[in-house]
Amino acid sequence: MQKYIFLIPLFLFACKKEDKTSRISARQQPSKIAVFSVDTVSGVQTLQYEINYFYNDSTEKFDSIIVGGIINRFDYSRLATENKILLNYTDSASGYNEIIFNPNFYTLNEYNEIPPSGSTATNLLQYDTYKRVTDFTYSNYPSAGNFSQTYSYNFDSTIIHTLRPYDGCETNDTITNSFYDMSTTLPYLLFTNINNNCGTFGLNILRALPMSNYSYKLPYKMVNNLFETSFSYTGDSNSRLAEAVVISRLRINNQIFQKLKIVVSY
């Protein structure tokens, strides 16, 4: 993610930006990401959900992002003063969501789901000096869905430790990185939260946005105590990611547990 008025990631404001060389001129930000389940016997693909990005050329900002059929309309009125973008905001008495940014690292710092009444659900991210995520926590009341993740980094891998306090579920995912740099254009959590014995957190705007301006690598393999997940990628004629195939196998017998296909359109 890059600077925009020293606050906001490139992904939210520069989707119109093109990679211009003597050979190509191609949009680098996706306009749609579709996730399909694939039947391992018949090969039949079933759409699970889509992420649609709507960019306003006249304002050079996103008007909205639709995640799994839920519309997130962007309100930038508090961006300059409070480092935040409001989603589906009508008034303070009505339910809405908000994205808060870290003005020092230009990173997505906090995502809050604020209902008309009751407790706010908070997704909080923390980063190291290299702008890599070190901690991700979700908290709400009641706490049945609360969990936390810590990230540690080696030369070619990332270890994600997940803890769910209410039932004691705890697991480690070891991600072996590929050579492919997802840069600032693809949502990291969409690729790294696949399967483990604690499950994955729900689908929301965090699955649709990059989190920081650190250039994460696309995963090559993920291993935890239950699953081994492999990733393969196909590019388009402009060297952009066009398709990812994700296969999770049970480690106990090597049987396929889940096969997904992620299709990226520009």
Summary?
By secondary structure, the protein is mainly beta.
Tell me what the CATH architecture is. Answer: Beta Barrel
**Quantity of strands, as a count:** 18
**How far is it from the N-terminal to the C-terminal residue, by CA?**
18 Å
* Residue share in helix: under 10%
How many helical stretches? 3
- Could you say which overall geometry the principal axes of the C-alpha atoms support? globular
The SSE order reads: HEEEEEEHEEEEEEEEHEEEE
How much is the average pLDDT?
87
When the domains are counted, the total is: 1
Q: What is the radius of gyration?
A: 19 Å
Give the neighbour order of strands across the main sheet.
3-4-5-6-7-8-9-10-11-12-13-14-15-16-17-18
Our estimate of the beta-strand percent is over 45%
Q: Unreliable stretches, pLDDT < 50, 5 or more residues?
A: 1-10, 20-24
| CATH C-level label | Mainly Beta
* Alpha-beta classification: mainly beta
Biggest beta sheet attributes: 16 strands, antiparallel, barrel
What is the CATH T-level topology? Porin
